[in-house]
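The instructor's notes for this session suggest beginning with a concrete chain rather than abstract definitions. Hand out the sequence below and ask the class to guess, before any prediction is shown, which regions might be ordered.
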Amino acid sequence: MTKSYRPLLERLGLTYPQYLVLLVLWEQDGVTVSEIGRRLRLDSGTLTPVLKRLESAGFLLRTRRQSDEREVEIALTPEGAALRADAVSVRESVMCQLELSEPEIRALRKDLSLVIERLSVSD
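After discussion, reveal the predicted structure:
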């Protein structure tokens, strides 16, 4: 999957992990690092460098929550929000390469989530 996305994302100046983080934020802006990590199944050690690069590129802001300074909240900048329009074509291009329908993709995602969940239980 990463190989399919790479040339499309390079045009946007993004890596695949950066794209995944932005997908989470485009769905729900203003979430904590731990929430992004939970949704992407990534630990903070992996996620922090990705977030720093996205912040350096001007796509997001990292701020400590006032209610709990241990938590870092991630919010899109206007540039990060605007990138969503360009990123729509990325997913569409990859879906065309897969030659799968939306219901097939949803079923595949559900099956993969089940596999990941079952493997995670043994950790």
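Then share the key points. The chain has six helices and three strands. The longest strand covers residues 60-64.
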